[in-house]
Design goal:
alpha+beta; 8-stranded mixed beta sheet; 44 strands; flat
């Protein structure tokens, strides 16, 4: 072996210090190259480069693994397996018994996202024994006829509630999933509904369902349990006549603002109200409006009295709901006798449930319930899956009253003032600022508890037992999985303890390399151990890449044999896989980098000397200016070369050399910008033509001496070489000669055409349809596109191709008829055509190929009028179809762009602003001013008689009429592009024809922060007011410019969005915490 034991490296290479950082190890591994030439490399140098003899780290000496040291096997995850291990660490499976219901407690309900408010009501209704007993009596043929072969799936709300209550009563689970009932109710699990509204709607739905039952004892259960009656009694002040309007209630909604206890709230609910002024009462006896008094009189009370404390109220100042965090005191025993109009025998109630909203905001928070067990009188707290029994058979609101003391609306910590402190409550009373519903049960005479037991019917108990069996099977499966994981972990523990001791490779013994990542995953029991993959360690020669040594670990041959036999993989990398070629290449590169500064000075001096005749080499001037940086870049590329060839073996070298060749500049001059030093890829590419020969541009090269070239070839061995005798590329010479000849021909042709059609080129003395020229009967029509292309050629004959033909067919329909009328060419269609004088048409016919002749002539009628006739005639069928399709496209668009401009005091804010973005490159090139001879007029503008320039018609696509009107005069002197240019502050919105104006206003609100009801929209002075109308019906077409005039702004746009879309009243935007 080359490393029989601890030894000194060669004298030229200082010994690397043990425990050196990664970079220091890297430098130490290659420090020897300063004194060793590539041809002098020995096996010792190769082992130094691969760090074979760097001392291994000892346990406790380093905190994490040393990636630069292939012999460091510390910190790769072995600490988990060494020593005694708790068997619970071998699995991540919770004890299934933790999901089992505790003895003598109740079952919880899963929160599906934002359904805690549903769970609280379900628990309260479950503890209403009369309601539960009634639901069990409901007929359910589906449940009664169900067999055990499949899971029971209720369909109706009543069936879901039956099954849910049966599970809450006799399930073995700690909590159950109410998603079936929630889905049947059509609730959104991601949005928190108004809890008070949900209570009303659910009881109403349940009442309707039970009223359809055949059993008459079930039809009125909801009314018997929850329904009471009061009357609105109005007394006329004039005649003292009293009128009564009876009404039913399922809960009393009590205002709590300004009150301290429940008695005050009920008293206010029943207090007398004066009816006077505009609110006077029409008396049937007096037969006119009179002052009167009105009050509510309680006639009868239900068995279960639901009192809603109105904590969530509308704030007129902010326009949003807010929560009243007022402390309200309420008794455990409530005597409603003083409030009844006619006293009943049983009007004393006991507190049976308190529903709590934790949080200080109406738009967020969490709902829980405190309920009393009717059988034992014990109080329980129901918090979704968590059930907590209160001690001493007493209601303990506890932390529910402090939950918001340390949190504000945003969840940040705050400190409440002393005014929020909980007031003292007397015995038998409770005080809460979070209770929003109190449930009182009629007190049984003499404390009779005969009805405190409810049995689950046999058909429901059968379904519960089926679910319990399913749960027990799941528990058994989980226990078995835990056992298998523990057994597997113990086996892995023994394997690791055995193999880890064998991993270190002793000096002088055979060794192999395995990936560090694989070793970590092997020691990480949470991931499956795959086969060992060494492919990404290979260099282009099929050996171990020197730069990959930091990602590999050197292990003993015995350990490698065991690992590969158990897990497979490959290729196996041993001592013979250390790559001499890669080490030699790296040595050459590092030495050249060190030598580069001296060589640069030497070449600079040599370049000052004269070159002997016929002995020099051609070098690019640009290459000579930047050769030092170019050489440094190449050396760094060479140093990283095989890093870009990861996973490449000898069979893939062709691909590698190909990519390197292109990087070296073999793509030719077309791969770079001329003369741009930053784009240089290799030396001399600036004087190599696209054919691989010497460039014909003599000014771009100079002669250098053989000594200079020899130095340069050390750094650029693949650079193109051109001796002094090398002839320039003959193909380039021929193409250059032909190009100059063609340019001269084009210039002659352009000059002749410009002379013969000078007015057309300068747009001088042009015919117009609005004012038909005198003494002219006929004008000729050509596409404006042809004229624009022709002018572009005349302006730049050396850079543009000559125009050879007039394509009039694009102005004709498939039947050969003309597509435009005289009237349409006076408006929008004028942007597609150009008019020619007859003399100009004669020149056009001689100079270009014309496929069809199109003309328009003026003819006088017998009555002395004038008509205009085109030749060919108008094809009315195609014209009508064209207009219909045009209008249809404008009304049935999708994903089109419109522009919204904000207006202040009927003036556009940015009327004179410059465009928000510059034109595109191609557009800017077309619009660049051309130098013109003295006296020549601007070809891009019409010249009017008063000398003012008028902007010519916009260039458009021929055959498709655009909705815009002819362009107006401008003083800017800038040719206008057909592309819409946004002004600063103007915003583009994506819309569809079938969306409503209301939806557009919401988009504008988010773009401009202007409330929909503060938006005044218009197009061309026409107001857009119907929010329900679609944009297509309102005449909003693609590229429309919509003016926005805004009234006073509103600050909170997120809440305003909810209000405008009608969502705030039914949903709360935040999920419960």
């Amino acid at each position: 072996g080359l490393c029989p034991g601890p030894r000194r490296p060669p004298a030229s290479a200082p010994s690397p210090r043990a425990m050196a950082p990664r970079l220091q190890l890297e430098k130490a591994a290659w420090r020897w190259v300063e004194a060793v030439r590539p041809e002098e490399i020995t096996a010792e140098h190769i082992e130094l480069a691969y760090r074979i003899c760097v001392p291994a780290c000892k346990r406790g000496a380093c905190r994490r693994n040393c990636k630069g040291n292939p012999n460091c096997l510390i910190g790769i995850g072995e600490h988990v397996w060494l020593g005694d291990i708790d068997e619970n660490s071998f699995h991540n499976i919770d004890d299934p018994n933790s999901e089992r219901r505790d003895k003598n407690t109740f079952v919880g309900l899963t929160n599906l996202g934002a359904t805690c408010y549903v769970n609280t009501f379900l628990q309260v209704w479950f503890h209403n024994l009369e309601l539960r007993r009634t639901l069990y009596l409901c007929q359910s043929s589906r449940a009664e006829g169900h067999n055990d072969d499949s899971d029971y799936e209720p369909q109706t709300v009543c069936e879901h509630l039956q099954y849910l209550f049966a599970l809450l009563q006799n399930s073995n689970r700690r909590y159950i999933d109410p998603s079936g009932l929630v889905k049947a109710l059509g609730l959104d699990t991601g949005q928190q509904q108004d809890a008070q509204e949900f209570s009303k709607l659910f009881l109403s739905l349940l009442e309707d369902t039970l009223s359809k039952q055949k059993n008459p004892n079930l039809q009125n259960v909801i009314q018997q349990q929850f329904c009471g009656q009061f009357s609105y009694v109005t007394v006329c002040n004039q005649c003292s006549r009293a009128s009564s309007l009876p009404s039913r209630f399922y809960e009393l909604e009590l205002n709590i603002q300004g009150h301290k206890n429940l008695t005050e709230c009920v008293t206010e609910f029943l207090k007398e109200e004066k009816l006077d002024g505009d609110n006077r009462y029409f008396c049937e006896s007096c037969q006119n409006k009179q002052n009167a008094t009105r009050r509510i009189k309680l006639q009868s009370l239900p068995r279960t009295l639901n009192l809603q404390l109105m904590r969530f109220v509308f704030d007129r100042q902010t326009g949003h709901k807010k929560k009243l965090n007022t402390f309200i005191s309420f008794p455990e025993v409530l005597d409603m006798g003083p409030f009844l109009d006619c006293k009943e025998d049983t009007c004393v109630y006991e507190l049976s449930a308190v529903l709590i909203h934790r949080g200080i905001s109406a738009y967020s928070g969490h709902y829980i319930a405190h309920a009393r067990d009717a059988r034992t009188s014990d109080w329980y707290k129901f918090n979704d899956e968590l059930i907590e029994k209160m001690e001493g058979k007493k209601l303990q609101l506890g932390i529910e009253e402090d939950i918001d003391v340390c949190q504000d609306v945003w969840g940040a910590e705050t400190v409440k003032s002393s005014q929020a402190r909980k007031p003292k409550c007397g015995k038998g009373y409770h005080c809460s600022r979070n209770a929003y519903m109190l449930v009182y049960k009629q007190q049984a005479e003499g404390g009779n508890q005969t009805n405190a037991s409810v049995e689950v019917p046999a058909f429901l108990q059968k379904l519960v037992e089926q679910d319990n069996r399913k749960f027990e099977e799941w528990c058994s499966d989980m226990a078995e999985m835990r056992k298998k994981s523990i057994d597997k972990g113990k086996a892995k523990h023994e394997e690791v303890k055995e193999l880890y001791e064998l991993l270190p490779a002793e000096d002088g013994e055979p060794f192999e390399f395995v990936p560090l990542d694989w070793l970590k995953k092997w020691l990480d029991d949470s991931t499956a151990t795959k086969a060992i993959d060494n492919m990404h360690f290979l260099c282009s020669h099929g050996n171990l890449h020197p730069d990959k040594i930091g990602e590999a670990k050197r292990v003993s041959l015995r350990a490698a044999d065991l690992l590969f036999s158990r897990y497979g993989g490959g290729p196996r990398l041993d001592r013979s896989s250390l790559c001499r070629d890669c080490v030699t290449q790296r040595c050459r590169v590092l030495r050249l980098k060190n030598q580069l500064t001296e060589d640069y000075k030497e070449v600079s001096n040599l370049l000052k000397a004269a070159v002997q005749v016929e002995q020099g080499f051609w070098a690019g001037k640009t290459s000579l200016r930047c050769w030092r940086q170019l050489a440094l870049d190449h050396l760094e590329e060479d140093e990283e070369q095989t890093k870009h060839a990861n996973d490449k073996t000898n069979g893939d070298q062709g691909h590698l050399s190909g990519s390197k060749g292109k990087k070296a500049g073999y793509g030719g001059r077309e791969d770079r910008e001329d003369g741009n030093e930053e784009d240089m890829r290799t030396f001399n590419e600036d004087i190599m033509c696209e054919h691989g020969g010497l460039s014909i541009q003599e000014s771009e090269r100079r002669l250098v001496s053989p000594d200079v070239w020899a130095k340069l070839k050390l750094y650029f061995p693949q650079a193109p070489e051109f001796t002094q005798q090398k002839e320039p590329c003959q193909q380039c010479l021929r193409l250059d000669r032909e190009g100059r000849e063609n340019e001269e021909l084009n210039k002659m042709m352009a000059s002749e055409q410009k002379t013969s059609l000078l007015n057309l080129f300068q747009e001088k003395n042009r015919p117009v349809l609005q004012k038909w020229p005198q003494d002219t009967e006929v004008l000729y029509i050509v596409p404006l596109f042809f004229v624009e292309e022709w002018r572009r050629f005349i302006r730049r004959p050396a850079k543009s191709s000559p125009v050879s033909s007039v394509g009039n067919s694009i102005l004709l329909c498939p039947h050969g008829g003309f597509m435009f009328t005289y009237e349409s060419m006076l408006t929008g269609d004028a942007q597609h055509v150009a008019l020619l004088w007859p003399s100009e048409w004669d020149v056009i016919k001689r100079s270009f190929y014309v496929d069809h002749s199109i003309s328009i002539c003026q003819m006088k009628t017998d009555a002395g009028g004038v008509v205009y006739q085109t030749q060919p005639d108008l094809c009315r069928e195609c014209r009508e179809g064209f207009i219909f399709q045009q209008q249809k496209d404008m009304r049935e668009y999708t994903q089109a762009t419109v522009y919204v401009r904000k207006v202040v005091e009927n003036k556009r804010m940015l009327k004179d602003s410059t465009p928000a973005a510059a034109a595109s490159g191609s557009e800017a090139e077309d619009e660049r001013d051309e130098p013109r001879p003295e006296g020549e007029r601007d070809p891009d503008f019409n010249q009017t008689e008063d000398g003012a320039k008028r902007q010519k018609l916009n260039e458009g696509t021929v055959g498709t009429a655009a909705p815009s009107a002819p362009s107006t005069s401008t003083k800017s002197g800038i040719r206008r592009s057909t592309r819409h240019r946004k002004l600063r502050g103007e915003k583009a919105l994506i819309v569809s024809a079938n969306q409503t104006l209301k939806e557009l206003k919401i988009q504008i609100m988010h773009a401009f922060s202007v409330a929909p009801f503060d938006q005044n929209l218009s197009i061309d002075g026409r107001g857009l007011t119907d929010d329900t109308a679609t944009l297509g019906s309102l005449g909003v077409i693609p590229e429309s410019i919509i003016c926005l005039k805004a009234d006073e702004p509103i600050a909170d746009y997120a809440a305003m969005d909810d209000v405008y879309q009608g969502e705030a009243s039914s949903t709360l935007p935040n999920r419960d915490r």
